Here is the input.
Amino acid sequence: MKGGTAGPCLRLQSVSVHYGERVAVNDLSLSVDPGEFVALTGPNGSGKTTVLRAVLGFHDPAQGSIELFGRPTADLSARERALKVAWVPQTESPRDNVRLYDYVLYGRFPFHGPLDAETQEDHAVVRRVLKEVGLADRSEDGVLSLSGGERQRAILARALAQSTPLLLLDEPTTHLDIGHQLDLLDRVRSLSRTRRVAVVAALHDLNLAARFADRIVVLSHGRRVADGTPSGVLSEELLARVWGVVADLELDRRTGLPYLVPRELSVDRPRSPTSPFVGPVHVVGGGGAATPILRALADEGYRLTAGVLHLLDSDQETAASLALPTALESPFAPIGPKARSQNRLLLEAARAIVVAPFAVGPSNLANLEDVRPFVPRVPTFLFRTPPIQERDFCDGRGEVAWRDLVAAGATEVDGFDGMSEGLGRLFSSPPATPPAARVAPAS
Ligand code: ADP
Ligand code: MG
Here is the structure.
C-alpha cells in the first residue's frame, strides 16, 4: 500500500465550497482514517458530490483546508493525487467497447510516464482486481457487452487498479437493482478491510449506509449534522428532520444494525368525480427512474400515486416531496404481500398507469407483474428507453413481464412527449392546475 499510514488519509477543516452565490458545502470538518469505511449521506442536493469533487481538486474551497495524507491537496500534482486517491464518479459509463482487461489497465496510468510500457506488476494488479470484483472470466469481453451490474464492477475495478490507499465513490449503486447494490458494497467493504483502504462513499440511501459503513456522516444543506456509528446516528428524529420521512427504527436481529421501516400507508381512496385534478395517474418506478416523470406530471397538474417504492429510494424521496400516496416497502426487502396489496389499491383507483424505465431485479419484478391485470381496463404507458433488455437484472424475467404488458395492450412510449400526448388524449380536457402544486403559471 502506498501513502503514509500515520495520521488520517483525509482531513477537511472548516471547508466551504460555493457555486457563485450558492453555498454547497458549509464549514465542513471531517477526518478519515486508514481502513475506515465512511458513508457520506444526505438527501439530494445536500453537498455529497461537491465534497468528493473538492477532495479531488475539482473545486477550490472558498474557505478551509483539505489535506490528503498530511499534504494540502493544492500542493499535489495530478499524478501525485492519482497515486493517493481513486474515484468512481456517479455518472461514469464506458463509451468505447474496449476490452475489459484494457479498460482496467487504464487505472495503472498514474504509475507510468506516458510512453512507458506496462510492467509485470501492472498486469498482476489488473488480474487481481478483476478477480476481486468477480469479472476474471470476462476480461476479454468488450466493456459495453457487460450487464449493468458488471459494468459498475468494471468501473470499480479500474479505480481499484490504481491501488490507492483512499477510494472515493459517488453513489456507486444508483442504476442497480438492490441485489447488485448489496453485492457491490459488500465487495468494497471487504476490500477496505483486507487492504486497509479508506473508503468514502456518497450514499443517498441511509439504510445502505448503515449496513456497510463503519461511520456515517450526514449532510444537510452542506452542513454536517451527524457523524458517528450507524447505531449512534440513525434515528427516527434524524430521518424526519433531514429527509422529511416518517419511519420506525428497528434493529436487525441478525446484524444488530438499525433499520428503518416505513409507516403504513393510509391509502388515498379514489376521490369524488368532482375532484379538481385529473387522474389519478399511478406511476411505477424505482431507483430515480420515475423522478423526472413524477415531476413532469405534477407540473402538468395530474393527481398522482406511486408504488411500490423502497423507503429512501430517490423516487420515494420525490414522491414524498410531492406528498403522493405511495405504496412502500422496507429497504432491501423484496416487495412483499402488504406493499403489493397497497399498490394494487392504488392501481385499482388509477385512471392511467405510467411505467418508468426502472431497473428490474428479483426484488421488484412484482412491480411489473402486478400491473398486468390492470392493463385491459386502465390505459398503461411504458417508457421503452433504455430498452428493458438493458435494465433486466433477473435473467430475462423482466423482459417476459414487459412483453406480457405489451401483449395485453399497454402502449410503449419513447419519452415525455409520447406520454403527455397519450395522457392528454385520454383525459378529454387538459388537466386543471392544482393551485398548490404550481409555482410558475403555464406558458
Ligand atoms: P448531492 O451530491 O448531495 O446531491 P451536490 O453536491 O450535487 O449534492 O449539490 C449541492 C448543492 O450545490 C445543490 O444545491 C446543487 O444544486 C448545487 N450544485 C451542484 N453542482 C452545481 C453546479 N455545477 N453549479 C451550481 N450549483 C451546483
Ligand atoms: Mg451527488
